[in-house]
Amino acid sequence: MLDIFDMHTHSIASGHSYNTIYEMARGAADLGLKALGITEHAPALPGTCHALYFSNLYVVPRELSGVKLYLGAELNILDYEGRVDLGPAELKRLDIGIASMHPPCLTPGSCKELTHAYICAMENPYVQVIGHPDDGRYLADYEEMARKAKEYHVLLELNNSSLKPGGYRQNSWENARAMLKHCERFGTKVIMNSDAHVVSDVGDHRFAWKLVQETGFPEELVVNGSLEELDGYLQR
Predict the structure, then answer these.
(1) Exposed/middle/buried for residue 29 (C-beta within 10 Å: 0-12, 13-18, 19+)
(2) DSSP-assigned states of every residue in 53-69
(3) Most buried among 101, 134, 151, 217, by the most CB within 10 A?
(4) Could you tell me if 113 and 76 are in contact, meaning their C-beta atoms sit under 8 angstroms apart?
(5) Is the CB of residue 133 less than 8 Å from the CB of residue 118?
(6) What is the pTM of this model?
(7) How far is CA 169 from CA 90, 147, 165, 175, 191, in A?
(8) Neighbouring residues of 18: CB distance < 8 A, sequence distance ≥ 6
């Protein structure tokens, strides 16, 4: 299977990451990737960049080291109504919006509440990817998630960082398996991402790919082989 891009990574601007945009792009080029998404943590997460950072993204080149850059944000879902922590002025500057749940920003609730929050986030036209939905701390109804992601033309993420041995997210393998089962049923597409916070993790989708193989998930439902298909989701 072709795997030509990684759309969920972080530079030093996120506050707890360790390389510059230029270093991340060079690392992607060394791997032969065609494109790289740098999606800094949005402002509600402690230690990350100010909203002004996202308003100014237009000044950054969209190609470095021969790699096409997609500059965006990993947005924090703030409540059970799916609201995120950037406003329209910043959101419209993003090339890609990933919406995720993080403990500093949202207290875990019931499965029903969390599923509702994810689905409300999907309704936001600036959200094109749901980040690490495998996290058992925020356990959702994967059948409903897969159904609604298909309806709203949103990608569900297979997060390699979650699946790494010793990862801190809970029951990620079991949850991702359940998600893939329902994605296959509905024809919902997924995206493999590294969630890299250091250049050595850029493009590392080993465990996500292993899960795809183990489950027999159809490769045609994984978008990582086509920038054209990815762009179709980002232009929703």
Answers:
(1) middle
(2) HHHTGGGS-SEETTEEE
(3) 134
(4) no
(5) yes
(6) 0.97
(7) 29, 24, 10, 10, 18
(8) 12, 197, 198, 199
